[in-house]
## 1
Amino acid sequence: MTVQGWIQIALFTAAVFALTKPVGAYLYRVLETEERPLPSILGRLERLCLRLCGRTADDEQTWRAYAVSLLLFSIVGIAVTYGIQRLQGVLPLNPQGFGAVPHDLALNTAVSFTTNTNWQAYSGETTMSYLTQMVGLAWHNFVSAAAGLAVAVAVARGLTRRGGPEGGKTIGSFWADLIRSTVYVLLPVSIVVAVVFVAMGVPQTLSAYREVTTVEGAKQVLALGPVATQEAIKMLGTNGGGFFNANSAHPFENPTPVTNLIQMLLIFVLPTGLTWTYGKMARDQRQGWAIFGAMAALFLAGVATCYFAESHANTALAGLGVDQATGNLEGKEVRFGIANTALFATVTTDASCGAVNGMHDSFTPLGGLVPLLNIQLGEVVFGGVGAGLYGMLVFVVLSVFIAGLMVGRTPELLGKKIEAREMKLVTVYMAVFAFFVLVPAAWASAVGYGTSSLANQGPHGLSEILYATSSATGNNGSAFAGLSANTPFWNLLLAVAMFFGRFAMIVPVLAIAGSMVDKKTVAAGPGTFPTNGTLFTVLLIGIIVIVGALTFLPALGLGPILEHYVGAAGKVY
Amino acid sequence: MRNELVTAFRAAAVTLVLTGIAYPLLVTGIAQVAFPAQANGSLINDTTEPSVTMGSALIGQSFSDPAYVNPRPSAAGAGYDAAASSGSNLGPTSKALRDRVAADVARLVAANPNAPGEVPAELVTASGSGLDPHLSPASVAWQIPRIAAARGVAADRVRAVAAEFEQGRALGVLGEPRVNVLLLNLALDRRFGQPHLGASITPK
């Protein structure tokens, strides 16, 4: 570890902190007020889009209607992207002449991008036409993120709206939230960032790949394309699906340390801002900062562990006469070094982004444990766009409930009682995640058609499998990429995990919002456990770690933790 | 329900046109006008024959001649295949990784008899993209005795050229100090002439 490394991590953390309030205030203004920015441009665009959808902005929905709208929209999205991939051979903007994507891969990819996972069983530059990348994939980068923002705000409305004339049983309009998130937030920021990225070297062209003759006279084909536009929304929407196979490690996706910093900030900017938005909606900013505090503590613990681990030598190279003073460099780019790769890995898995600027599969056992565990904790450390906040609010409800049990009072959150129905829904949310991580992992580890995809043997093989099912169910999308996931078994298994990991978790969360919005607000009494202070932050961290550890520690013990010890003993497989 | 489905189709169409077509086309237009060099891949043309494109300033390429700075091992295709980016994805208890590194160390030690110290890890580890255009200054310095010998010039003269291509941290803080291998090798050719390629190149 170096001083410069820590300075970069500190600088990033400070920038995230500084952006939280302004971004949170902007999101509040867009989603919860009528004074939205640039009414003559963006306001017109918003109204035009809503009119073309056949909707007005004010048709409030119950949680059920909200969930139905989201599900229908997502299923249409899966169908469209599946169709584009199957037809790309006859569609325009296909200068490399790529043929139809096979059935299982097209389904996996369609589900992957619709669920904001961006798991990539394909290699972008050898599989997808420019049209598929732009229309089939980048489109979902926008709308899956907008849908996540919509759900987060709807859930916050459920918790914070007061009974009486203001609220009733509704939690907002899905279509208005979707369009507003896209038009006021995602689109304008993406346009600006994409142009900045081009200026810094990211290609943006519709021309074919370029063949060149290298200095030593060999042929080299440079894969190109509309990369910058994909890159901007890939990070801002915490999608993570790279234009190229190597994702943000590719010099065309992420050419300099400056683009790298911008990319990491883009991942965190909306999730952190949402904590402030939540505080504003709760009419108590400290509610938002308490959540922010828990997230920040878990983030710093993760990045410190990962940076520490990656600064150590790779045990596979021990005794070979290699100078490993810098740390573990396999799978890392020189321009980012150890610090920026460890930071990026932590950020991308704290959020449900899944972009990578180095190969997690080649991390040290403990360095690779950090991104894996981040995903398994539920990606609530700032988390995905929207998904981070609503996931965290589930943990908030659970924490309040456990605190209530400890003092023997009926638990309440923001003056609303937490009762049996909400707790059942919280349990469903937690159980769905654990089920779709562990059961598919167990299945794949036990059968030849699962393990034949492994690139690494021994404990690391189990880590590859566990990472894949965690990443899919957690809608992250990063990978221990040695796993050859483009087989019918893996494509279908992970498509199912991604689908349920998104929608079987969103529906109970919306149901919690629906049942909370309807409750009477009671004044805080002496038995009320305050959810806006340090004590609550500490309890919340404890609950997140305990739930994650109880669920996943046995599996982690057989994967990365075991590998750490056998690796230190000098064993290779 | 049927109404909702119609809305879902319409919303999909509206957002698809806006974000999947209008957005990338608008930015492509801006990029091609304002930053054509970057937007088309930061290509580098031969100084003597400007019609010949030799690569991209951002993408690494293979160099195996002893007169050139040799880059890191690459897992992209057969090596520095810029249409098949990839890392090795070999983990820290991988025998395949250990064997690959052992072979590379033996090769590098034999080719660099006067190199200072142990082999820098960078020179035997594959990057994440397989297209890493850079090396750290230390990894360049390690190869300079060999390059100087192959070109028949004093090592200090090669060092002076390499120093010109050292790139510091952005704003003094961000990233790691580095050297662009392709740009440095082109500069070495300009300064000391092109080596005779062919016989000395051993395919990887």
## 2
Amino acid sequence: MTAVPITRRAPTRVARRAATSRPPRRLGHTILGVVIIAIMLFPLYWMLNVSLQPAGNAAATPWLPFDFSLRGYETAIAEQGGNLLTSLIVSLGAVVLSLAIAAPAAYALAHFRFGTWVSVLLFAVLTTQMVPGIVVANALYSAYSDLGLLNTYGGLILADSAAGIPFSIILMRAFMMGIPASIIEAAYVDGAGPIRAFLAVVLPISRNALITSALFTFLFAWGDFLFALTLTTTESMRPITLGLYSYIGGFVNDWSPVMATAVLSSLPAIALLIVAQRYVAAGVTGGAVKS
Amino acid sequence: MAESRSVATATGPSGGLAPPRPGRRRRRPVARHRVVQAAFLVPAIVYMLLFFGYPVVKNLVMGFQEYTTRTFYTGEAPWVGLANYATAISDPVFDRALLNTGLFTVGSIAGQFTIGLLIALFFHKRFLLSGVLRSLLLLPWLIPMIAASAVWRWILDTDNGVLNRTLGLLPFVDGRPAWLTSTSLALVAVIVVNIWLGIPFNATILYGGLQEIPEELYEAGSLDGATGARAFWCITWPQLRGVVTVVLVLGVVYTLKVLDVILGLTNGGPANATQTISTFSYHMSFREFDFGVGAALGNILVVISLVFAVVYLRVNRRAVDE
């Protein structure tokens, strides 16, 4: 079963012990840490600052938004509101599709005895990471054109799941490997088949892994640019990333609506980081969240 | 739920650990059990075949075809042998794109990894607010790349960008570098932005690796006089090697296919100064509508990735043994 573990296991005993104790004070470290993060996040501050300026074409943007104005946001929502909605629909669709496809597969790869097939399939999942997006887009464009999937929600949802599905399979499998076989066997003894054992036992236990997968699939689909760029051709079907690109495609003479749009398109990431911090951290390390 | 319940009842007691019944009847429910199990994998396999397998094969075929907008109307894509590859490689932009791909990848990885490792080491010592700051560090990686590209375009603007305004305050700097619009600086600027984007990922994975190193090793090391830099080279680096290899190989594979950042910042310009194989492929397919040449370039990119794929998978194999 442990033929090809892709991700590292959950935090070790040492790490967990450390995480529960109070951090030592070390003020010098805190100050340096704040400086590092301030430098790293400066571009994001600048995005916010410019978005709140009354006129973004000013020769020199002030360092602080003292002339606070929401005009940029008014323009952004008027011009890009529909695109935000398109992105929301596509991203939620990609989450549902990805979880529906990846969760059963992850469970099967973690617990069913398929022998070498497990290795073969995991190998295939890993190989998908090597396929450049432009190769997929190039081939999908002609296929979508034939099938009438260009400029459709369904077409974008399917393509935008391409990042979320392999990621979710790997992440959820790593978590599900940790579910003791005895719990699942107990369900079988109670008369459940594989499907009911999966729905009634495995999924509830895997809640944290499902949430982490869902969050990242959402962010992948929300941030997708390549498929938005290649698989839509009309203004009526335009995700926010493409809306932003069309803003910066030519000469920009007013940056506040552009930056307001950038801020709006970054809101899901910011919201998820605040609300679901531990899931996000778990997703980046690809490890499992302990419940 | 209703459907699953009926299936569950059908496979019912014979599934899993239930005592086997005597005779031939035992086989059928077990076989059905096997089919149900396989069904868990079918959607994922179908999806991967359609959205990864098919595109790779289709691109391979398109690379040998004259595949243009006309193909969409007539359905004809005549075979042209290696003509697309000849067109792609003999294009004066190709050499530039290949060189840029190399410079972009090496430069990005070197920067992301070095800074990411330094930040990971810094945060490895826990202190007040270290957890919060570590989460905030993730933000550049989580926002859409095109949003990050948009703000960097304004920061790097030659006349009114905040970077040049700040540089202008320094006494010994003269001139305003045209970060995104001069052929000599644009690639550097694009690499710097991509480094900024990649730091959070590198730092977080490497931080995770550092956390896995048992504290006891450092305690034992300090008894033998290994502290500071010595502890890093004698304990941290060897212990971290597996994670480092994974981060580097993943980094290369991901950086080779970067498209968003370059299109967002420069569109491959000025005068192809930031064109990579990836953006060149996009350009040929979706700007010139010569999908055959675009596919050929995509295939070249796949071959380059494959070289690294071998390393990548070998690394994962090794991780098994440990």
## 3
Amino acid sequence: MALKTTNQKGWLFVIPVVILVAFNAVIPLMTVVNYSVQETFGNNLFFWQGIGWFEQVLNSERFQSSLGRQITFTSIILLIEIPLGIAIALAMPRKGAGVSVCLVLMALPLLIPWNVVGSMWTIFALPEIGLLGKGLNALGFDYNFTRQPLSAWFTVILMDVWHWTSLVVLLAYAGLVSIPDAYYQAAKIDGAGRWAIFRFIQLPKMKRVLTIAILLRFMDSFMIYTEPFVLTGGGPGNTTTFLSIDLVKTALGQFDLGPAAAMSLIYFLIVLAVSWVFYTLMMKDEVE
Amino acid sequence: MRRYTWLVPTLYIIFLMLPIYWLLNMSFKTTNEILGTFSLWPREFTLENYRTIFTDSTWYNGYFNSMKYVVLNMVISVSVALPAAYAFSRYRFLGDKHLFFWLLTNRMAPPAVFALPFFQLYSAVGLFDTPLAVALAHALFNIPLAVWILEGFMSGIPRELDDTAYVDGYSFPRFFFKIFIPTIASGIGVAAFFTFMFSWVELLLAKTLTSVAAKPIAAIMTKTASTSGYELGLLAAAGVLTIIPGAFVIYFVRNYIAKGFAMGRV
């Protein structure tokens, strides 16, 4: 990293960014904080409520089960996508025309609007007309994602793997191509096996990009809304109602401003806390 | 074992292409055929679904609306992120680390949290239902991302470049636009790609901040799916058309991306 000089002029350069982001972040966030501590009976009349909404949300079974589902979902996603992404990146060609073809085709799912991803998977997985649904039923599985919780979970997870594994692949691949050939030659001279090369050369060199991949996948899967909403609408029942779906139902559907705001803040703080841990770990490595 | 490694990416790509193929397949079928028979390719090939989209203004305007705010957002995000990223990579100033982390926290804010306050805020300032509202709202998560990416690229460029330019008598703006920006062109490409991507795919905020005039294509699709029964063929055709801009963008920036990723940031 280049040596930095102390120069307060730096502030001039960041002013436009600060203004724009503050407009978008501080005002809405204060609105949310405002709602979270007040009770309203309409007509723009507000009463001080204190931490009542927070207690109510944290103690409600509904929030707890949404949070539980969210944690389960995110854990499964990370456990599948990170190893799978690494494996695919390791198997990708390093040079030649194949690289471009792989990169372009793999990046394609990343650029499809999220609700189109949902619609596409609905069409793909419906038992009557979808290739996946029809195929699984023909193979003897009793599969119907609109009625069975297990099928719904399977479909939501498969959809997310389809949608986001490429991001992990691209990041891991970037880490791999940045390893100089000399490392591999040295490993060859030492007689290192395939596993040793992975464990002691490739994995450490990928550590940085993998932290970014895990961070991004954690944040985005924890905030997931559109794809499962279009695919299952949170159902059957509430079995795929993740935090964001629950929140939008409370805020825009039932217009319960207080509980929704309290829930928003709790939600945001969870993402923030976990991300902060990742970020600190990442920055610690950078300094070393 | 080495000989079979090509199988892994190949199988993965086939897995990626299957749902896309199925969407394409459906888009060329009539509603009757979709609901009546199950076939791996369209038996009664029709372009009717696409014709509807290209002739009905509510449909094609949706594409224009989406493109408007995506491009606007890309321009805003990258142009304000450039000087900020420069400051973060070159200078040490009061609160710089905290500011950087605060910016990143906005990338971590669930859009669902901001949907309602954004609606109120943009209604209050009279921007509701304009492309600018969506572009500014998307700046919330795209500016931090752009700053983060660009800072990574800039830190990879030695300070000597700046110093040499000053010795040669370049003023700061001239140095910045004539020398520095061309040097990090690939970084700008990567940042532009990612801001495009996240603005193009986001729907919750875009839908919340628009009603009629600036409604994005993705929101029109959701509405069609829920109101006019189940016009799956039409929905599939609209879906196929939303994939095309993304595919174009990836194709044009593919070399930058490979290069950009190689620098280890994003």
